[in-house]
Design brief:
Blueprint: H1 11-20, E1 33-34, E2 38-39, H2 58-75, H3 80-83, H4 86-119
Antiparallel strand pairs: 1-2
């Protein structure tokens, strides 16, 4: 008898996929955000506390990194950037960069939260942290 077992999915990649879709990394059916990038906690479907994952500056950082490499780097190759008037260059490239940044920010922040869920990198609660040492001046 041979048993075929389904491969166990990697929780980090599973969390990344769920986060990119802006879904709760725990249940994949509830929304992750309330509005644009405000984390909805707890999840209305499964009750998971999504606010415990620290994605404060990681989302904008990775978004800037992606937009810089995907958009600005290749633009520097084209000669119109160097030969055209500055008003024409800024008028054509800034809207593209702005739209791309605004579209990628919630996706990247969701991916960061999903990856943290997969790595079980939750923020420690303040109640469980040790009290500060007394007598230090």
């Amino acid at each position: 008898m041979t048993e075929t077992t389904a491969p166990v999915p990697n929780p980090v990649f599973q969390g990344l996929r769920r986060g990119v879709r802006r879904r709760c990394p725990n249940c994949a059916s509830g929304p992750l955000f309330l509005g644009y990038v405000k984390v909805l906690s707890p999840c209305p479907t499964c009750g998971h506390d999504n606010a415990q994952y620290r994605a404060d500056d990681a989302g904008p950082y990775f978004t800037i990194l992606l937009v810089g490499h995907l958009c600005i780097g290749p633009l520097l190759i084209f000669p119109f950037i160097w030969k055209s008037p500055i008003w024409l260059v800024l008028g054509t490239t800034l809207p593209l960069i702005l739209v791309l940044t605004l579209l990628l920010l919630p996706v990247v922040k969701g991916a960061v939260i999903g990856a943290q869920w997969g790595m079980k990198a939750a923020r420690q609660s303040r109640a469980s942290s040790p009290p500060p040492a007394a007598g230090r001046d």
